[in-house]
Amino acid sequence: xxxxxxxxxxxxxxxxxxxxxxxxxxxxxxxEAAKNLHSQLGFGVSVxxxxxxxxxxxxxxxxxRNLLARLEELETRLQKVLG
Length: 83
Hints:
This protein is an all-alpha fold. It has helices spanning 5-20, 32-39, 41-52, 64-82.
């Protein structure tokens, strides 16, 4: 049976708790499917790798103001490339 997004999110949460070992655990309601996915080698390893790597860049949450600025910047860059 394919894993749902919800199961993958729950499993990623379990891996996050494994990696960061928080003092307070509030992981109620983790499904058996998510626990099974957590015990599979591939998925847990890839999530663990993602959580422990150094960031590849910076994250800027988009709001309407900086979204518009970003679109204008991309439009300018495209005009330069396309001529």
